[in-house]
Amino acid sequence: MELVCRLTLAFSLALFVGATNAVNPGFVVRLTQKGLDYARQEGMSVLQQELSKIHLPDFSGSTKKQHIKFKYSFNSMVIRSFQLPTSQISLVPNVGLKLSISGAFIQVDGKWKVHSKILSGKGNFDLKVEGLSISVGLQLGSDASGRPTISPSDCSCHISDVKIHVSGKFSWLVDVFHKSIDNALRKDIEGKICPVVTQSISSKLQPLLQTLPVTAKIDSVAAIDYSLTGPPPVTAQSLDVQLKGEFFNIAHRTPPPFSPPTLSLPADPGLMVYFGVSDYLFNTAGFVYQSAGKIESYITDDMIPKNFSVHLNTSSFGILIPMLSKMYPNMLMKLKISTPSAPFLTIEPGNLTTSPIMEIQAYVILPNSTLAPLFLLNLTTTIMVKVSVNSGRIVGDLELSRIEMELVHSDIGPFSVGVLNTAVNYYISSILLPEVNEILQRGYPLPLLDHIQLTDVIIKPSEHFLLFGANVQYG
């Protein structure tokens, strides 16, 4: 059913993504300090692996001691362990993030060789780098396509202490010039850490952010624009990623005749991530499909269960409207359901409703298969909307709460619409909405980065927006 597909999109997908030329975002993703700490933990394991791959080149030098010139070399150096026990990520208001690592230490194995005119020696050594600290500034932004970007703005590294232990013949010689060796190793290691850190950000983290799509094609009619409206705002408590959030017509994009309201997410640090979903999203979906003439459907007699008392034929309806069976005896009927205006979602604290105005045009199917108009009804409805999240997908359910009917026009003479109340209620609640709900239960994905799963999901309808909160698992 055409209407089923369109209503499904209007009642579900629009709840997540949808605002070109909008001053306010239609969709906000908020990362709390708890969420950033989780991301830091996941990132530290990756960074530790990358730092462990640092290649330390051979180095050599010479020094004099008591007029004797010694030449030394250190080679075959391999990092056996690189530990990052303590790290912290901080929000820097109006700038981005600051990653701080302290108390890190490195263990290195290698070979040494010393030579002079009077003696020479060689052996193995192990090196311990202690009190390593790293500080990295992370600048957040958005690229021309509307995807988020992250880049290192600064990086510094400092080593507090270097300890070396040597073994082999004449190993005591190393103690003669250990200060030169310590300084050389310290300088070499410090010079290699920041390039690895910045490269890891560019090669590991930035590609992950690029997995956020900026346009999602829904069908041949509509697509969703959820590109960033600009660089993510950062406060001392949270980081907000603001998305445009707007459905648009693929063939002809027209700005909706309304704007998104201001989203004011509550300051709740209890979960890792929060999604603020404006009611503007639904309304742009309804606007697009209504403008394209796609929110309509037909109900025929073969769609009605045999045990229901009022079937779509003139015999059944003739009991309610006697004139109908006299004018068109023993003929099948057909109902066209459409909406003269776009459906509008209202989100209030604790409540989601939509009150679409529907029109039902009744036809009789003549023996030559043409349609003859019978009457036109105007329906004012209230539909309760329930949503939940399952495996990172939004699922929904619609329930008819209220329906009022008005006879707009009749080709079979006047009659009281009250006699049709039972039949119309049944057609809407038991035929149309179950078809929509079946599709809604399949769910539609939230705009998540690759490999992200949500847990401990809470849902809270607020004024003009729907608040989703969740913890995150990556993997």
Automatic annotation (TrEMBL):
Monomer. Homodimer; disulfide-linked. The cytotoxic action of BPI is limited to many species of Gram-negative bacteria; this specificity may be explained by a strong affinity of the very basic N-terminal half for the negatively charged lipopolysaccharides that are unique to the Gram-negative bacterial outer envelope. Residues 267-470 form the Lipid-binding serum glycoprotein C-terminal domain. This is Bactericidal permeability-increasing protein. InterPro entries: Bactericidal_perm-incr_a/b_dom (IPR017943), BPI/LBP (IPR030675), BPI/LBP/Plunc (IPR032942), Lipid-bd_serum_glycop_C (IPR001124), Lipid-bd_serum_glycop_N (IPR017942). The keyword Ribosomal protein does not apply. One of its GO terms (biological process) is innate immune response. One of its GO terms (cellular component) is extracellular space. It holds the Pfam family LBP_BPI_CETP. It comes from Xenopus laevis. Belongs to the BPI/LBP/Plunc superfamily. BPI/LBP family. It is found in: Secreted. The keyword Membrane does not apply. Residues 30-252 form the Lipid-binding serum glycoprotein N-terminal domain. Keywords: Antibiotic, Antimicrobial, Disulfide bond, Glycoprotein, Immunity, Innate immunity, Secreted, Signal. Residues 1-22 form the signal peptide. Disulfide bonds join C155-C194. The N-terminal region may be exposed to the interior of the granule, whereas the C-terminal portion may be embedded in the membrane. During phagocytosis and degranulation, proteases may be released and activated and cleave BPI at the junction of the N- and C-terminal portions of the molecule, providing controlled release of the N-terminal antibacterial fragment when bacteria are ingested. One of its GO terms (molecular function) is lipid binding. SUPFAM superfamilies: Bactericidal permeability-increasing protein, BPI.
